[in-house]
Amino acid sequence: MTEATEKPILVAAAILERRGRILICQRHHSDAYGLQWEFPGGKVREGETLKAALARELQEELGIRAEVGEELHRLQHRYPDRYVEVVFFHVPRFQGRITNRVFEDVQWTERKVLSAYHFLEADRELILRIEAGEIL
């Protein structure tokens, strides 16, 4: 498949905010790009909407029932081993207690210090925009 016709892997991700802090998750050490930070979410399955995929992923990864809100940001990024399109949604509310089911670590952090964490390469522009107050 040529680069021009290659379809990216579609991923839905959540930006959860609580009392001025944002939830970030550290990829498990055994995962690809292990120990790097990201926003929770995952691949969209065939026939699944972006919002339904994100709600499912948040239930699987964190044990919460999320209210998936508006789309905040969309990007495409080519890693050495994969090409992704990530769609980020605001999650203003959720039910349940956050339980770390798959990550190395999960933290609520202040927006102004997000860039101090080693985020996945695709997320870095978004991090700067959140810190600057352009998003959220």
Helix content: 10-25%
Can you tell me the number of structural domains? 1
CATH structural class:
Alpha Beta
How many E strands? 9
Structural class of the helices, strands and pairings? alpha+beta
Portion in beta strands: 35-45%
Order of helices and strands: EEEEHEEEEEH
Mean pLDDT: 95
Features:
136 residues, alpha+beta, Nucleoside Triphosphate Pyrophosphohydrolase, two-stranded antiparallel ribbon, 2 helices
Helix and strand topology:
Layout: E1 9-18, E2 21-26, E3 37-38, E4 41-43, H1 50-62, E5 65-67, E6 71-78, E7 83-91, E8 93-95, E9 105-110, H2 124-131
Parallel strand pairs: 1-7
Antiparallel strand pairs: 1-2, 1-4, 2-3, 2-9, 5-8, 6-7
Structure description:
This protein has 136 residues and is of the alpha+beta class. It has one domain: Nucleoside Triphosphate Pyrophosphohydrolase (Alpha-Beta Complex). It has two helices and nine strands; from the N terminus they run E-E-E-E-H-E-E-E-E-E-H. The protein has helices spanning 50-62, 124-131; strands at residues 9-18, 21-26, 37-38, 41-43, 65-67, 71-78, 83-91, 93-95, 105-110. Strands 1, 2, 3, 4, 6, 7 and 9 form a seven-stranded mixed beta sheet that branches. Strands 5-8 form a two-stranded antiparallel sheet. Strand 6 (71-78) and strand 7 form a beta hairpin. The radius of gyration is 14 Å and the shape is globular. The mean pLDDT is 95.
